[in-house]
Design goal:
The chain has about 140 residues and is α+β, with helices and mostly antiparallel strands. It has helices at about 20, 50-65, 115-130; strands spanning about 40, 45-50, 70, 80, 95-105, 110-115, 135-140. It has a four-stranded antiparallel beta sheet, with helices on one face. Strands 2-5-4 form a three-stranded antiparallel beta sheet. It starts with 18 loop residues before the first helix and ends with a strand.
């Protein structure tokens, strides 16, 4: 599970912008392939938890089985909190639950290299099913 070594503030403010409003705002960084020949590009906005990223990474690694190299292009550095079930309103902010990565449309989430196109497509498809965003396969042309 990915998490930062150290954070300046344990609890951050909630992101104010509604996900549907920022869905039209495509990402400007990390939108092209930098390391591998094939990549998984996010097509919608989403907050991806470290558990979801790890599940997707394991699915890809299990499918390619020592033949390819994988890169994760996003890192969950945003802490999120949650209050326990059936707790009354007020009484402060909830406890830290984990870390998320804010993924905007156009962002490359994973890259893969060292495998053929068919294997890369299947590995990235399996990884995409573990994520809460719609994704598509991209490749170097």
């Amino acid at each position: 599970m990915l998490l930062p070594k150290k954070v300046k503030h344990r609890k951050w403010f909630t992101m104010r912008e509604h996900p549907r409003k920022s869905a039209g705002h495509a990402d400007t960084r990390g939108i092209s392939l930098a390391f591998g020949s094939y990549g998984l590009k996010a097509m919608t906005y989403g907050r991806v938890t470290s558990n979801q990223l790890e599940a997707a990474r394991k699915a890809m690694a299990h499918y390619v089985a020592k033949t390819g190299k994988l890169w994760t292009r996003v890192f969950p550095d945003h802490p999120f909190t949650q209050k326990p079930a059936e707790v009354k309103m007020g009484k402060g902010k909830g406890d830290l639950q984990g870390f998320i990565a804010e993924v905007k449309p156009g962002r490359i989430v994973f890259e893969i290299d060292g495998v053929d196109q068919k294997s890369a497509a299947e590995a990235l498809r399996k990884a995409g099913t573990k994520l809460p965003v719609k994704t598509k396969l991209v490749s170097r042309a």
